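Appendix B, Record 12. Input sequence as logged:
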Amino acid sequence: MATSQAPTATEYIVHHLTHNATDKQKFIVDFSVINLDTLFFSVVCLMLTLLTLYAVARRVTSGVPGRFQAFVEMIVEMVEEQSKSIVHGDRTFIAPLALTVFVWIFVMNAIDLIPVEWFPWIAHNVFHIEYLRPLPTADVNGTIGLSFGVLLLMLYYGIKIKGFGGWLHELVCAPFGTSKNPIFALLLGVANLGINLIEYVAKMVSLGMRLFGNMYAGELLFFLIALMGGFWAWRLDGSILLAVGHVLAGLAWWLFHVLIVTLQAFIFMMLTLVYIGQAHEGH
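Logged structural output:
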């Protein structure tokens, strides 16, 4: 009876890829739907990030630092060096922003290192929640939301550094320049405006999709590895090889995924600095 009620591999993966949302998505872009699990885990990870950095800042000492303080100081120095080399201007806000982005995305990505069944099992058996996807960065809504925040910062610093008039002038006069001929000036202005708008949108979309694609693929592979162990029927036959493969493949991918989790957080932080740095510069 238990075997007949067990989900198929497809049903298992579809179930784990279904969000705890306010409604079913009816269109490719549906702003009426909110993925509650993505929102919840994103906020929890952000609060954990801010509380951790605040606690370290309060306990920092001028003497010989402890291991955790030394580790955090290494991260801070790394971010500071990167921001100094990329952004040529006031970094009073930008360097802490980059540090927060790096740690926040790392913490969100690290959820993927927790066994895939733990959070759904707790949600189902303790809170009676049927669907739960705890990895915010495997949801394109979450990653595009992050990249949209970077887009707003690009626009803010572009206007702040160049002034609204200078920013608007660059928007319609670069990269092709302008002309004294009114007709040519209009045509060049439309072309420049179109290219700059496409550039802004392309940066936002590529930034969010890069993080989403890598984390979604990693999450999906963990589900496939989990299925290998699930197919073992606790019998001493050929199916035991699936259990062994589950352990070996799971450990190997987990270790490699530690690098992916860190690398994706670093790439997002670096591109955030690059885009903000470009907003400081003129064509």
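The chain has a mean pLDDT of 90.
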